[in-house]
Design a protein that fits this description.
alpha+beta; Alpha-Beta Plaits; 3 helices; ABM domain-containing protein; Dimeric_a/b-barrel; ABM_dom; Jasmonate_Hydroxylase-like
Length: about 110
């Protein structure tokens, strides 16, 4: 699903990852993190895709850098991030961006 974001400016966190083999509780944890993120002040939406090769890209949208930092330091998110490092990801990279302009098309 394409996130319904407000008029720019706002922020995007781009999380690119390469999964390890097997689920090992990943799907349940990912669903919980999405549910928890949606409850955070300043959360605007998310878009996510993962290929059969294990490469995934998740873009979450936020109203401010302060909202991003609050999410980063949320205790449940911190614990899951550590499990990601030890169990679910072979590699990952996070990028934080300010969206200056956004436009789209739909039928």
């Amino acid at each position: 699903m394409i996130a319904n974001t407000p008029t720019a400016p706002y922020y995007a966190v781009i999380f690119t990852s390469l999964r390890t083999e097997g689920d090992q509780g990943y799907a349940e944890a990912a669903a919980r993190m999405l549910e928890l993120a949606r409850e955070q002040p300043g959360f605007l939406g998310v878009e996510s895709a993962r290929g059969e090769d294990g490469l995934g890209i998740t873009v979450s949208y936020w109203a401010s850098e302060a909202a991003i930092l609050a999410w980063k330091h949320h205790p449940d998110h911190t614990a899951i991030r550590e499990r990601g490092r030890s169990t679910w990801y072979a590699r990952f990279h996070t990028r934080v961006c300010r969206v200056e302009r956004a436009y789209g098309f739909s039928l």
